[in-house]
Design goal:
14 helices, about 0% strand, elongated
Length: about 250
């Protein structure tokens, strides 16, 4: 069912009141299929209306999801950055979120290095020794002290390429050297990108849920993160509808 101009203005006004934003994709869906729009909008609105987070926190989490290397939805990223700023987010806070998210690339090693070791050991009929020297043990202790966790793949990284590990340690821990955003929110950001539909890194989700609980997070707060991330499927429309319109215009 399509909608007329006055109805569309009312719809846009209502959504602006509930969620703080309105964009061309919402405009498209509300015009093309009003019935579905209300279902779609209600699903996206729930984390705003039933959440224990303030609007700025919700927007920072949306920024993390859409800036994640496994998602990178530009139109939604632009929308949520503007909305975060409208809700009082500072440039420094948004930049800290981006720094936290960018380290997701290291999951290549988190997943790939253990597989490499397993396959190498099977191929060579041997077991690769992993023995840290005293300097490397100090770096491991420094990592655990700052981040609160450790995985065996980091032992292998440390033994295999100490300079690379040191650069990784500085990269990972830099956002933790400042209090621009709280430690609990940092863990929320990690939970969001690890539980992202386009990533689903179970080991990371578990580690960062544990850390968030240590920083005082409640069950309801962590559940709230998962509900926000569950709306990531809306990226389908943000990416696909402009392509659909361009394809139709060429016919």
């Amino acid at each position: 069912m399509k909608t007329n101009g006055n109805t569309k203005k009312t719809i846009a006004k209502d959504q602006l009141k509930e969620m703080g934003y309105w964009d061309s994709i919402m405009d498209y869906i509300s015009t093309f299929d009003t019935d579905f729009y209300h279902i779609y909008k209600d699903f996206l609105c729930t984390p705003y209306t039933n959440s224990i987070f303030d609007a700025k926190t919700i927007e920072l989490i949306h920024i993390a999801i859409n800036a994640s290397p496994t998602n990178l939805c530009q139109s939604k990223l632009e929308m949520h950055m503007k909305n975060a700023i409208n809700h009082g987010a500072k440039k420094e806070e948004i930049f800290e979120v981006l720094k936290l998210v960018s380290v997701l690339g290291m999951h290549t090693c988190a997943v790939g290095v253990p597989i490499l070791v397993d396959e190498y050991n099977a191929y060579s009929n041997d077991s690769m020794p992993v023995q840290l020297n005293e300097r490397q043990k100090e770096q491991k202790d420094q990592f655990i002290k700052k981040m609160g966790y450790w995985n065996r793949f980091r032992d292998i990284l440390l033994v295999n390429d100490e300079p690379f590990f040191k650069s990784y340690l500085k990269y990972l821990t830099n956002p933790w050297e400042k209090d621009i955003i709280s430690a609990k929110l940092k863990e929320f950001i990690y939970i969001a990108i690890d539980s992202s539909t386009t990533h689903l890194f179970e080991n990371g989700i578990r580690i960062h849920i544990r850390n968030a609980l240590k920083y005082g997070a409640s069950f309801e707060e962590i559940m709230g993160i998962l509900k926000i991330v569950s709306t990531q499927g809306s990226s389908t429309f943000h990416i696909s509808l402009p392509i659909l319109e361009e394809a139709l215009s060429d016919i």
